[in-house]
Amino acid sequence: MLAVGTPARRGDGLADVSFVMDATRELAAALKDRTVVVTKSTVPIGTGDDVEALIRELRPQARFSVVSNPEFLREGAAIEDFKRPDRIVVGAEDEHARAVMHELYRPLFINETPILFTGRRTAELIKYASNAFLATKITFINEMASLCEKVGANVQDVARGMGLDRRIGSKFLHAGPGFGGSCFPKDTAALTAIAAAHAAPTRIVETVIAVNEARKRAMADKVVAACGGAVRGKKLAILGLTFKPNTDDMREASSRPLMEALWAAGCSVRAYDPVAEEEARKIYGERADLILCKSADEALDGADALAIVTEWREFRSPSFEDIKAKLKSPVIFDGRNLYDPRLLSNLGFTYYAIGRGDSVVVPPHREDRRNAADRRRAR
Hints:
Strand order of the largest sheet: 10-9-8-11-12-13
Shape: elongated
Number of helices: 14
């Protein structure tokens, strides 16, 4: 059995399968009798057919099968996902290939892992459809978060109430600054491109992409508003640069449009991420308005306010006394809803969160001044 790896994304959203085909040319020379060629890549629907056609052109007498076996591994949890997958999807067109793949995955049967055999094109589409649906759940709860902020509801309770419905489930219902990374942006773009090419547009997924991009941009506006409406000449501490914890991946991360908007507004950034310093230097190089720090304490030191972008475990239980002592103003914008608003209010912080009607919490000693200002504006 031979396997082919993962392609990159082209400018039109589709995966660049050129090096998959290059690999196919190489492995065609190595085929032995009754070889099963497995594509693990997330590739446009029909790529398996193209791989089979190319091998047949190069080795017309060879006996082989081409299988689509998409992976569903999360960044930061790939080994665990491989050992204990939710399901295994195998797209095969003949019984021999199915038997080989069934035997290959036999060690996982002890965990009662479901294995689904489908046609090859169906398997290719399952991967795209799965990621697009998860991206849709994230985008939906983010829109509900915006509504919660307007009507005084709490998105965490809304998500909990929704997730208790077994038809919906609780996963991917965590409001935040928008999805990023290497999979969801790439696969949603690819799915819409594939659908458009076949005159079957996926309007929901197209909207998900647009809403997610708008949300990332809107996060900068929220942070600027939390800092009083103007950030020129200020320093903002940012904790978390990666699109999620347990990876150094900054592709499509929400931290990037946030920092870029802050720079455009004249604000400098003091950023800390447990693992992404090198990646950030690759992307942005050396610039005067970006200080990459070695610790959260260093990032906080002398900053005007704090923004939480990635929910790394080490950010969950900080010393708020230390944070308050280091910041010029006790202002926190929490893009991941890590903290208790009332606790921070009692500690003297102005606290902004996502989708919690009570998230703009002003310390009691500042409330009278804000109410007085509101009354003056009303007059």
